[in-house]
Amino acid sequence: MKFNTTIPIGLRAFYLDELNLYRSSLHSGNSSQAWHHLERSHILGQSYPLEHTYTHWSMLKFGLRQRNTKEVRVRCCDFWLVVGNHLSTTYPLEIPVEAMCHH
């Protein structure tokens, strides 16, 4: 089993772009678009412990901002399971095509 510790530079650029788009969408009040970018950052960073944990932390904060108790409960559980997930076999979600082309 491979334990990824560092996200590749090309993939990291797409990951950071999604986080920046999340912040921008959140700042402009577009919650659904903000969530969309968080989900994409999750897909891109899920194989890398720091990025994966940070995205789950951001999702938890998003749920708190939205006062969405269901999302907060889910993210609290997810947040604690993220590190353990990296120590086991995972089945990653599909990486967006444009990120794969530049990876």
Q: TL;DR of this structure?
A:
With 103 residues, the chain is mainly alpha-helical.
Question: What does this entry look like structurally?
Answer:
With 103 residues, the chain is mainly alpha-helical. The protein has one domain. Helices cover 73% and strands 0% of the residues. It contains 5 helices and no strands. Helix 2 runs antiparallel to helix 3 and helix 3 runs antiparallel to helix 4. The model has no long low-confidence stretch (mean pLDDT 79).
Relevant terms:
103 residues; mainly alpha
Shape: flat
Pick out the low-confidence regions.
none
Into how many domains do the coordinates divide?
A: 1
Quickly count the helices.
5
Quote the distance from N terminus to C terminus: 21 Å
Major pleated sheet = none
Q: How many whole angstroms does the radius of gyration measure?
A: 14 Å
Can you count the beta strands? 0
Strand and helix order: HHHHH
What class would the helix/strand composition place it in?
mainly alpha
| Helix proportion range | over 70%
Q: Beta fraction of the residues?
A: under 5%
Mean pLDDT: 79
